[in-house]
Amino acid sequence: MSNSVGRMQGLIQFIKFGLVGVMNTAVDFLVYALLTWLGMQYLVAQVFSYSAGTLNSYVVNKLWTFGGKAALGGEKANAGKVDKGEFARFVLVNLATLLLSIGLLYILKTGLGFHPLVAKIGVTAVTVVVNYIGSKLWVFRGQ
């Protein structure tokens, strides 16, 4: 495979990863809105809604972003099955990304005086890349 084809496939994979992120955010917000509307305490609702978005992320990234032909019944027969080690790596990457985002937000807002929304945009740009690299190279390696 030529370098340009490999770069194009990597770009397409990164775009898919971003689209899944938008979907995860929608799942998170919809579940949160529903649970709080039903009367659940907002912090408890946040735990459930964030977990729903994260679970969505795992499933869709495994099957679509990093699965390719294997997820459609191609080369790897077990591509759609949950691998406990893979799922554990996924959770660790997402926890690390969450901790990184909290640290960077603190530095940008409190340490450097950035407006909270500007800090959030900068942090999101960094954490999306870190999460993608962790997912590609460690969580879904070999897919």
Please provide a brief summary of the model:
This protein is mainly alpha-helical and 143 residues long. The chain has four helices and no strands.
Outline the secondary-structure elements.
Layout: H1 3-37, H2 42-65, H3 84-111, H4 116-139
Helix pairs in contact: 1-2, 3-4
Question: Biggest sheet: strands, sense, closure?
Answer: none
Rounded mean pLDDT is 85
What is the helix content? over 70%
Q: Span between N and C termini?
A: 16 Å
Low-confidence blocks of residues: 69-75
Shape: globular
SSE class: mainly alpha
* Residue share in β-strands: under 5%
Count of DSSP H/I helices: 4
What would you call the quaternary organization? single chain
What is the element string, with H for helices and E for strands? HHHH
* Number of DSSP-assigned strands: 0
Could you explain how this protein is built, in words?
The protein has helices at residues 3-37, 42-65, 84-111, 116-139. The protein is mostly helical and 143 residues long. The longest helix is centred in the first third of the chain and has 35 residues, at 3-37.
